[in-house]
Amino acid sequence: MSTVTSDTPLIAIVGNPNSGKTTLFNLLTGMKQKVANYPGVTVEKKIGECYSQHGKKLRLIDLPGAYSLNARSPDEAVLRDVLLGRRPETPRPDRVVCVVDSSNLERNLYLVSQVLELGLPTVLVLNMTDLAAQREWRIDAAKLSERLGVTVVLTQAVSGQGLIELKLALSRDDLPLPKWQSAVLPEGVRTALEQSRGPLCQTGAIHSRASLLEPLYLLSDHDPTHYGIADTQIGRIQELRGRIDAAFPGWEDQLVAERYRGIEELCGEVLQRPELEAENITTKIDRILLHPVLGMANLLLVMSLLFYLIFKVAEGPMDWIETGFGQLGAWVEGMMAAGDFRDLVVNGAIPGVSGVLIFLPQILILFFFIGIMEDTGYMSRLAFIMDWAMSKVGLNGKSFLPFLSSYACAVPGVMAARTIENPKDRLITILVAPLASCSARLPVYSLLIGVLFPAGKVGAWVQAGIMLSLYALGTGAAFVFAWIFNRHVMKGASSPMILEMPDYKMPSLRTILLHVWQRAKMFIVRAGTIILGISILIWAASTYPKSDTEDKALQLENSFAGRAGKFIEPAIAPLGYDWKIGIGLIGSFAAREVFNSTMSVVYAVESEDDENLEPLRDKLSAERYADGRTVYTPLVCISLLVFYVFAMQCMSTIAIVKRETGSWGWALFQLGYMTGTAYVLSLLIFQTGSALGY
Amino acid sequence: MSAATLAELPVGTDAIVDSMPTGRSGLTRLREMGIVPGTRIRVTRRAPLGEPIEICVRGSHLSMRNHEAAFIAIRSATSA
What's the pTM value of the predicted model, to 2 decimals? Predict the structure, then answer.
């Protein structure tokens, strides 16, 4: 943002999920917005600016969608804290725009009733008026405005209708203060909250000037992570809450019922709807898309399309990126004098940048696809259909898509886990997603299966069968680990799955494209830098110290990476691997498919063509120890294949997991449990197999 | 009064929410989404394997699992 001055008012946009809030925000601010994260939590903070109808600059903040100020997730905690002015890095908004889905007025008014009580000047936006009209709902906006005491504006964010009226309302200096109160706190509870104010002030949880609403929402915090509340204050808050709970059992639920009583009364005055809900388009579509057979068939179709897009369509641009950077490297090599610096640029930096950008086609496609599914409302249906299966391992239907995407690449898969609101489910999904066999494992599988069963000796179906069982192994393991993490590792009870099934609507292309762009930018800036850094490190490890030899294999053997391969040989020998395989394993940390190119260097295989595995495969098959034993016995191949199914050998995934979980802790935990499992299983396979004489 | 719950309500039938246990945070969220005692509610669909269920309340469609639905006691909408 250019200038942050006190005379540009900060306007918060709040509303339920699916209320069209973000589309409206994008419409107002256009590209003039900045996306960051609230510190310490993966909740997006979007701030933008626009000019009012009178040319006055306004700052807008798009707050996370929520159903209530009684936080149940970090998203809702952020909303509560910003609106109460509890966040040090975000000033308390001066005004509020409350966006409401008109076709779902009654439920949306719940959050509105809480927000109005905050006493900030508020504009109520009745959005999606077209959907309400479709349902034959008639809303008396004038009456609503009169009863709530706030300005009411009608909009259709998708088409932009009502935008000028909204800007006019925002331009008003004398925006009225809300006067409606849906529910009055019972006297006893009010007194109890008053009394809790003192102790809360002492721990620093609230200011002495804070209104009664602040203790109210702190005491009714249901966010399992208690985001926005300091650890030192939790104990005190829970103690105070226990006291109120004991004195007034069910006080929170009573308050909810009171609010809805007020809302019902209000709706009785302002909302006319048909006695019998007419069958709308959503019901008709759902009859097909949620049909036991047709719905499943459609889901398979949609997922096949997604797979086709991220596997096949992305392949072209990924090739261009690779070839383009390859040519750039060759060009730079010709332009610069030979030396370490040229080597760093040509073999370290350029492939590193290429290794970051190579993910972009898949990320762009996946997020565009997800954007369409979310914006149309199909995402909820997908979760609805898949929920039963996912619930068996303690996850919910929303984990399905991120996991599925991880078969292409875990990086976009992990990023897609943001669509899961429940922090525990989200974390477990991120932790198990890389067990899905991603496309980077495919070349390694192909190579080793080729060594294991040379083509011609067995039918192609045997090779395919092995390939399929490797995919099944990874998938099965992901479910087992999800179950274990859910039961034994994560603290906190699973919150119930409550999913809203919004009406279908036309997607807003503008919102989707903006979102895709923001995600891509975030990936490049935040994960890309880590990936680039590690690429250069790996380059250095396989380049230094320099040997006086033209022999690349010998050079690699003497490098740090080669020495590391030898160093870890005692550890990997029980798995059946020699130090050369060790180098391959270390190289794979950059990306799994690097195994193939590293082994080509190790065995000095001259191959102009990356796609052609035959020379390398033959070399591996022919490789012998000094005493004449075969190195790549079938048992070693199987042990190695299993290692590749399980091991976390992808720095890009580690970088993105660090980024998405906000800590190195979980990224390292994942590295440990996956690689540990890989080691133990490969060890068991090789040792048992050897003992049995294979 | 019969001890019928939302989990047992046949698809396409209306009912009135009779009572819900208090003090459980998961159910508090359901209340906040509009399911409070006295509300008219309808099961619109069941997923093929019996779970989750889709309900319609106050004009909005929500889905939940039987586990939660079983806590919501209902009474007949006609005799009310």
Answer: 0.84
